[in-house]
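Hey,
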Amino acid sequence: MNDFDRFPAIDSFIAKIMILSSSRRALTIWFCVALFYMYQFVLRVSPSVMMRELMTSFHVGAGEIGSLSAVAMYCYAFFQIPSGLLVDLFGVRKIVLCSIEFCVVGIFIFIGTDNLILAKLGRMLVGTGSAAAFLSVSKVSTQLFSPSKRATLFGLTMAAGTVGALNGSTSLTFLISKIGWRQGLAVIAFLGCLIFALNFFLLKERSDFNRTKERDKNFNIRIYLKEVLLVLSLKSCWINALTALGIYLSVSVLADLWGVSFLIQTYGFENRQAAGIVSLIYVGLCIGSLVLTFMSDWMNQRKRMIQVCTFFIFSALFIVIYYTSLSLFLLSVLFFSIGFFSGVEMLCFVNATESADQRFSATVTGFINCVVMLGGAFIQERVGKHLDIFWTGQLDGEGIRIYTTSAFQDAFVWVVGVVFVSMIVSCFLKKEENPSRLS
């Protein structure tokens, strides 16, 4: 018998200290990776606040600027699954540090050239580097925290990204107005260097955090990839991915692209007023991702929470699109509600990662994110093409096409239809709720 066996109170105290130390360490790691996730959101939305400056600098029109912005998103979506594989194989620290380097180098290429092709290359590096951000947070949340806390952490992550998008746009707009777009992005790049340093010194991993620390000599990459394909073929992965697509689609289509134009045409709002109403989706998403995930952990009701929220998203979306005599207050409430209930998307990620081996948690997250991003981009494109189909030939004073309210309603059938399908698919989610009530 050692000395501590005779003093159980001391032994218990030491155990609590060790648990507390471990919790703080886990939170520090999560914070470092979540900060990178917030940062890459600023980079993704940056072109939207410097459209005129970019057109002037590169001597191009709106179409080329749209392509310049989109190339980062396509790289982001394309590298979701490869980035997930890399995170699962080589660990969070190496991939996060490499990803931040990609982002910073991409920014410097972008601001250091007047050549549009090189500028697109810079944006491609930004999109590629950003791909691993959310996957890394998912990996950390799965590896270092108990199941009873994961939904809340996913919600905090989404809230951090939303705050990054909202505040990043405001801050970057201020910088551009004071020192110009190139110098403003240079400041953002310097901020990325600080985040790199923070992750370099504070992002430490356990010796068993990833497979490459003590890789078995018999490890076979072909066998590993077969296991990955088997995981991605699981019905639960596809059900959660399709459900998440419908939940987030309103954000992708209304908040990111077509919502402002729809409100201007339907209600005659000025651009700033319409943008303010649409931005309530992001405000709601920030709050909802926190509240709904916390309620899910507290109530232990993930499946029912997803189903109820998907129904409310569908209902609010249907009213916004097909009832065109709503008051300003009711419109604001509905747009906020769409964002708020879309916060439940995080539960789909939690469900999917818990249905598969933890070794593949980042890969599963990447797969779902890939479905959500590519699906959203496809529906955005379909809405645009259908608006052109239903265009009546009207032009405004600057020669820009005017689309009628009925044209928007016809085109938005794509959105309403996919959300409805996702609402039905959510009925096939696994009945098991939060698998652990451990604290």
